[in-house]
Recover the amino acids of this structure.
């Protein structure tokens, strides 16, 4: 199975955005139904319209967030920033221990796509970056940072080269805290 | 938003099965395309037909596995056991460091369902149990174990009460190693 079969796979350039809710299991433990209702309101009123506006070509629910693919890194990062900025407004006045806060991971590369899902190293990387992203902010690969940096008004912080468990290649990570970020 | 709104939520009794590939990121790092092709073959030839046979009413891709919901805990556990047993046969002779091995988590309860996904504490629990399941085996809640135990020919091992991060309620966990399990 080595070699030639690889050429049968559909590949395309894409930017991958993953988002999930910080401490979603804790929020669900505190109040399952209110957490669900508030999360779904953020999806319906903010995240779904925003991914559509930035022309996401693939969006999947991950239970407490989304996996989305965009044509360009700029589309993905602007979508992410808009969502995080508007979340600050939406959650003003809510008590910190019940507040829904998203963290996001961003990568780009040649991904594998089929009818059901998107796959490959860069999809895995986005999911890992999300886990190290600041609450209310975005973590991205150096490739994304290079592509979008000149177009952003927000500062990108270099977190250096990080090694993730089970990943052979280390990743240089940048983070964007987004204006008005809430405390984690 | 407290109280009455809760009654608007559609709830149903369901058994939740989550499955993912042990060290999927490592396998992808070693060979992205072969890992994808072999994983998809297991899905197409084994997992998708098996979840259909046991009448799963919801199945979602999680990239390296599935989240599925069944009407009864017995349907879910039999589906899981069949998949794990057949995986041993399918992967005979493959070298251990490249072998695709699934681990599975199983819970049941009154879950929240909408058009897109399934939600709630018991869905979160299944996902956590998956992370402590033995490679090639299944971890389940005590509620599942009580419901299916008398019908299984396989022994269930009591792993005791476990506390998962960010979950208020501890979970009593049982595991089923499945006949012919491969080493992790």
């Amino acid at each position: 199975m080595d070699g030639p079969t690889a050429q049968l796979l559909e590949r395309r350039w894409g930017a991958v955005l993953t988002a999930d809710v910080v401490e979603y299991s804790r929020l669900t433990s505190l109040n399952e139904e209110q957490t669900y209702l508030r999360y779904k309101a953020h999806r319906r009123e903010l995240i779904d319209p925003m991914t559509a506006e930035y022309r996401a070509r693939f969006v999947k629910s991950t239970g407490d967030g989304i996996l989305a693919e965009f044509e360009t890194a700029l589309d993905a990062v602007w979508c992410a920033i808009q969502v995080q900025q508007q979340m600050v407004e939406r959650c003003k006045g809510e008590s910190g221990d019940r507040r829904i806060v998203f963290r996001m991971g961003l990568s780009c590369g040649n991904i594998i796509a089929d009818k059901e899902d998107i796959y490959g190293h860069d999809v895995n990387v986005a999911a890992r970056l999300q886990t190290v992203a600041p609450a209310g902010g975005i973590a991205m690969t150096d490739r994304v940072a290079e592509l979008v940096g000149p177009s952003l008004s927000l500062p990108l912080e270099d977190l250096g080269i990080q090694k993730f468990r089970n990943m052979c290649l280390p990743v240089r990570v940048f983070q964007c805290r987004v204006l008005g970020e809430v405390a984690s």
In short: Chain A has one domain: 12-177.
